[in-house]
Amino acid sequence: MGLMVLLSWLQTLPLPPTWVAFLSPMAAAAQSPAKLMTLSLDVYQARFIATLSFVYFGVFLVSVLTVQSHQRLGTLAHALVWSGVFQAVFAAVMWSVHAKYQVFYVDISHNDAIGTFVNRNHLAGYLCMCLSVGIGLMLAKLGHVRRSPSNWRARLVNLLEFILSAKMRLRLLLIVMVIALVLTRSRMGNSAFFSAMLVVGALAVVLARKTAPHTIVLIASLVVIDIFVVGTWVGLEKVVERVQGTTLMTVEGGVSESIEARSEAARTALSIIKDYPLFGTGGGSFYNIFLSYRTPNYGYNYVDHAHNDYVEIATDFGLLGLGILGLLVALSLWTVVKVMATRRSPLPWGIAFGVAMSMVAMLIHSTVDFNLQIPSNALTMVVILSMGWVAKTLPRGT
């Protein structure tokens, strides 16, 4: 993350033309004949993104250095869950009345469940992260399951205690967030969440055989209740219809094209990566640079993002920046998988599960959207990454 901050600021530094010509020939040609040049073609936007990168790095350090106990880690995880619940309730209420208002001269219409975002896909991405952490907390609480009593009265008492317990409250909060996730009608948001849950759930069963039965029961209950009960109630079939509508179709002349313009924008942006391969065009410059790369096949429409985080990061920061972030993701994912394989303390294990699920969900969702370009989502992802590193070194509880 520190390297990413340095790269962000390097793009904003005034450099001799010969240096820029060596590092990024196309950037030098675009600024010729200036006495001093920058690697970024939109230096003011690059400074803003560099400042954001420094903020992300600072929050990551604060999280790692201050969350050094089970209580603090649990409190941070619960804060994320409650934040997701707030977004879910707000989205459902505003969507139910189709609220319309203006914020900072921007018209906001709640024709879809969007919460405090302006796009339903970004709400879906945020809910995926909060749900993942919540599921990890559920698994952590299952680490203290008592042996089933033989007396029917004791069983009834245990059942009532479970209904009134923190586990049940947490489960109800997860259901609220799932309802909002389905209401967003986000195709990839819903697909990424359930795919990540199944993939990481299967991995958890393999890595932690001792808690495998509890994990299987929880994952099965999430799938059955959330898909077949909640999903049917709030209209999961509409999400399925939107997914089916994304398939390729054949037009006149036998040419196949996608009805998703988003993927076409990402394909068009590959030309930017080809021209600025190492350092990119500067943080946050995509919306400006893409104007000169639009093609008649795509349509001369204004596009602010590539709708593909991998492509947009590569255009803004080059393959060097994409590689740095890829290394961060790979190291973090490897760390939480090791935690799931070696640690038996319930909370660190459950948090590692939640971090892994959140990362897998965002890796899937990022193929067709730009959640990491939204500061709130990017900052939340940074905090979740820090929780994975904390889970690795957290001392055992008493």
- The beta-strand count equals 4
Largest sheet entry? 2 strands, antiparallel
Order of helices and strands: HHHHHEEHHHHHHEEHHHHH
Say what oligomer this is. Answer: single chain
Average predicted local confidence, pLDDT = 84
Physical arrangement of strands within the biggest beta sheet: 1-2
Query: In which range does the helix fraction lie?
Result: 55-70%
Radius of gyration in whole Å, from Cα? Answer: 23 Å
Could you say which overall geometry the principal axes of the C-alpha atoms support? globular
Structural class: mainly alpha
Strand content: under 5%
Poorly predicted tracts of residues: 247-259
- Count of alpha and pi helical runs: 16
End-to-end separation in angstroms reads 33 Å
Give a written overview of the molecule.
It is a single chain. With 398 residues, the protein is mainly alpha-helical. The protein has a domain at 2-69 and 185-393. The chain has helices at residues 2-10, 17-23, 25-31, 43-66, 70-96, 120-141, 152-163, 166-183, 187-207, 212-234, 236-244, 261-275, 286-289, 309-342, 346-365, 375-393, and strands at 100-103, 106-109, 249-250, 256-257. β1 (100-103) and β2 (106-109) form a beta hairpin. The two termini are 33 Å apart. 40% of the residues are buried. The model is unreliable at 247-259 (pLDDT under 50).
In short:
This protein is mainly alpha-helical and 398 residues long. The chain has 16 helices and 4 strands.
List the helices and strands and how they pair.
Elements: H1 2-10, H2 17-23, H3 25-31, H4 43-66, H5 70-96, E1 100-103, E2 106-109, H6 120-141, H7 152-163, H8 166-183, H9 187-207, H10 212-234, H11 236-244, E3 249-250, E4 256-257, H12 261-275, H13 286-289, H14 309-342, H15 346-365, H16 375-393
Antiparallel strand pairs: 1-2, 3-4
Helix pairs in contact: 1-4, 1-14, 2-3, 4-16, 5-6, 5-8, 6-8, 6-9, 6-15, 6-16, 8-10, 9-10, 9-15, 12-14, 14-15, 14-16, 15-16
